[in-house]
Amino acid sequence: MITSTHPPAADPESKLRPARYGIAIAVSALVIVALITSSILNYVFLDSIPGRTSLYGLLAVALITLGTFILVRAYDRDRATRRVHLIRAAVLIGIGVLLWLLVIDVFLYTQSAGPGVAAVCALACLPTTAFGLWVVRRMDRNHKEPWRLVLVAAAWGAIVATSLVVWGETIWESTAQHTLVPGPGLDTSLAFMAGILEELAKGLAVLLLFLVMRNEFDDVVDGIVYGAAVGLGFNFLESISYMTNLYSIFQPEGIGGVAAGIQWYGRQVLGLFFGHATYTAYIGAGVGIARQLPGMRKKVMAIVAGFIIAIAGHFSWDAWATFFPIQNTLFGLVEIHLRTLIMTGPFTAGLIALLLFGIRYEGQNLLDQMRKEAATGQGAILPQEVPILASPWQRLRQRLQALNRAGVRGYLQVSRLQTAQLDLAMERWHRERKEIDTPLEAEQRLREHVIQLRHWVAA
Amino acid sequence: MGSITDAQLRTLYRTLLVFATVGVVILAIGLVQFAYFERPGEASGVKASIVGVYKYDPATGQTTGPDRSEYARNEQFAAVVEWSSIPSNITVDARWYDSFGSIEGGVGPGTPADLANHKTVPVQVPEGYHYVLPGRYTFVVERLEDGVPVEVLGRRFLLVDRQ
């Protein structure tokens, strides 16, 4: 929210923050303990490639987690110290990513398909995932989330969440294979495993983002955006993993490229929005609704409900997709698409309904706040600007007019002004509902910032 | 407006709860499915003796060499089961599963006496392929009830190398 523009330092005296941060620290500590325990157990008892990866990858995960925390908090600081924190975060995340890629490359991909194939698979998945993130961010028509947080969410999904599930799933799968009857019973157990562990790992990212950066987490729409971003990040790495694995399995038969290509299409085209993105977006929706609900019981219920839907959606696909008949003919291609549409489509449709409700409600409330702000006569939002700001199309039209008049610079200035005005309306909405822990002074500084931007635009 | 937002939130919250109820039903169906195929109280205490997994020559139908847990993908292999180690009044089968969970060969179902002449259970090369697929293979001897496998009497894992 207001932290996406310049002035509002966080309220250091807020009584709400310590509780949230306490929960965030506790959740992070639990994640770290779970990572360390499971990786050591994997290494000692399984001695598998993922087992070794898990142990050596711990440092990378720790660096990325710490770097992410410093990064998202950097924007709550004033400009003088922000740069130092951003550099620290960038260095930590950079080292973590490189270390992690090295571990993965050495222990996983180079032993199956080789680093060259892994790189080609990653390059193939990059544009589709980037497109997915662009679409997801664009869905928030009234108040777009900052790219840095959308990318942080995707990075968590790709790196931390996948690392968490590798270890948990190795233990679950190994135990199940040693104790259960192969066939439908084992398959059901593994579907529960994927649903529960993967959604918990991804959902933790959404939850932590909410706890640490509540001011950037306005409502159900933001939750859906962040959740879907985490899901897309997870899907990116899972796609690479499956593509390289199948390539190495089928290449000696001469069809490695076809096998990898089918995986790419299934996960990066057909399932880009239907799979992980949809499931984790439900967790985000639950957290986003909880953010505005009064009372702890309802908040917890909403978050739990989001997790249940995500786990159920994921489980139903993993457990029952094989029951859907796919003929070994040309019509099988149609059936593959129908399977995705019929099995995951209802979940995606439900999510779209929540999203549309959310966008509509958000728009109505922002309009109300803009009218109230215009009525104060302070000049941050003028009465004649309200209908323009309330409509994404009108806003675009106004920016294009500025483009014609003053070029790209004019377009960007009007864009900044509109964003700041919407930030102000959002701030007012949360303040009216007592959902904010920044001081009233921050709202006034935001107002002054809007007026300053207006002068620049006028000039 | 605050009360309007509350009403809107109520709509969203209730919609989410309805979806979650559907989710609970889905997960409950999953649990029933799991319980049906992994029935509780089915442990009979019977153990099947899997003598070993050996290199297999499909031309002669004979096994050769030592018992191994790792094979190259251009090698074929077979498990050898001592069917006489199992009581004669139960229905059993033996199956090979590849790492995708697909059945890649097996014998049965039948009584141990019916299967006495099928001590060697080779893994099958999938149709249209030159070699077995690499990965982890599971060989199981299962007890069946009403045609459904309900208990694993013996189990062996082995690895087929990618190279």
Could you list some keywords that capture this structure?
heterodimer, A: 459 residues, mainly alpha, disordered N terminus, B: 163 residues, alpha+beta, five-stranded mixed β-sheet, four-stranded antiparallel β-sheet, 9 strands, 22% helix, elongated
Describe what this molecule looks like in 3D:
The complex is a heterodimer of chains A (459) and B (163). Chain A has 459 residues and is mainly α. In chain A, 81% of the residues lie in helices and 0% in strands. Residues 1-14 of chain A have low confidence and may be disordered. Chain A has helices at 16-46, 49-74, 79-112, 115-138, 147-179, 184-212, 220-250, 256-270, 276-292, 296-320, 331-343, 345-376, 386-389, 392-432, 440-458. Chain A starts with 15 loop residues before the first helix and ends with a helix. In chain A, helix 1 (16-46) runs antiparallel to helix 2 (49-74), helix 3 crosses helix 4 and helix 14 runs antiparallel to helix 15 (440-458). Chain A is built from 15 helices and no strands. Chain B has 163 residues and is α+β, with helices and mostly antiparallel strands. In chain B, the strands form two sheets. Chain B has a five-stranded mixed beta sheet with strand order 3-9-8-5-6, with no helix packed on it. In chain B, a hairpin with a 2-residue loop joins strand 8 and strand 9. Chain B starts with a helix and ends with a strand. The chains are: A mainly alpha (459), B alpha+beta (163). At the A-B interface, helix 6, helix 7, helix 9, helix 10 and helix 12 of A face helix 1, strand 8 and strand 9 of B.
